[in-house]
């Protein structure tokens, strides 16, 4: 699983940080840092974090090329 965060849309509500602290981290009051490649054991937490984002700034997907033949 990979994630992309639209940092122009992100307002720093930090719901993602509370739900998936191993993937999302807030630096200062508004600077969001995140791991683009999500470890397997964090997938469900990241899905919940994306759903909880008030401005829907988190996009969740699979890495490109997965399943391609």
Give me the side-by-side strand order of the main sheet. 1-4
H and E order: EHEEHE
- The computed structural class is alpha+beta
What portion of the residues fall into strands of 2 or more residues? 15-25%
Shape: globular
Helix content percent band: 10-25%
Main sheet specs: 2 strands, antiparallel
Give the C-alpha Rg.
Answer: 12 Å
Low-confidence parts: none
Task: Count every beta strand, where a strand is a DSSP E run of 2 or more residues.
Answer: 4
Overall pLDDT metric: 90
The count of helical stretches stands at 2
What is the terminal-to-terminal distance? Answer: 19 Å
What's a quick, concise take on this entry?
With 69 residues, this protein is of the alpha+beta class. It has helices at residues 15-19, 43-52, and strands at 2-5, 24-27, 31-34, 58-61. The strands form two sheets. Strands 1-4 form a two-stranded antiparallel ribbon. It has a two-stranded antiparallel ribbon with strand order 2-3.
Describe the structure.
- The protein has 69 residues and is α+β, with helices and mostly antiparallel strands.
- The chain has helices at 15-19, 43-52; strands spanning 2-5, 24-27, 31-34, 58-61.
- A two-stranded antiparallel sheet has the order 1-4. A two-stranded antiparallel sheet has the order 2-3.
- Strand 2 (24-27) and strand 3 form a beta hairpin.
- The model has no long low-confidence stretch (mean pLDDT 90).
């Amino acid at each position: 699983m990979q994630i992309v965060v639209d940092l122009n849309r992100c307002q720093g509500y930090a719901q993602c940080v509370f739900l998936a602290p191993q993937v999302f981290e807030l630096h200062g009051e508004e600077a969001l840092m995140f791991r683009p490649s999500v470890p397997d054991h964090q997938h469900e937490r990241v899905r919940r974090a994306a759903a909880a984002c008030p401005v829907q700034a988190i996009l969740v997907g699979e890495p490109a090329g997965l399943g391609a033949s």
